[in-house]
Fold this sequence. Notes:
alpha+beta, Aminopeptidase, five-stranded mixed sheet
Amino acid sequence: MEWSKLILIVPEYKQLDYRRKLLADSETMAYNIGFGDNDGTGCIDFDESSWKDWFSRWVNNKPERYYAYIIKIGENIPVGEAALRYDNRRKSYCVNIIIEAKYRGMGYGEQALQLLADTAFYDLSAEKIFD
Length: 131
């Protein structure tokens, strides 16, 4: 596998439309079927009216949370999202990665996990991460 295909980029508020697209894609979100209230699709409604509150909790809120788009270098396109959330009870960071369905099977998840782990351990001084 070639290890320099991706970077993590923290999005600006005006770039949250990609997150809405990602969470609304039934193929991407199929893993989520049966969790929460999503009409059996797995999709999550990320309406623009919720962006301000979500953005203030997740973006630039280190060390409690970290959120970034997974960007394909060279093409400068997002292929998914990556996040860390500190869990006080476990004294560690919970990892979350979603790769857009059309980009799965290309090794992006593995590289995104490595980039996210590097962020956790080097930027946030984490001792442990979990999923």
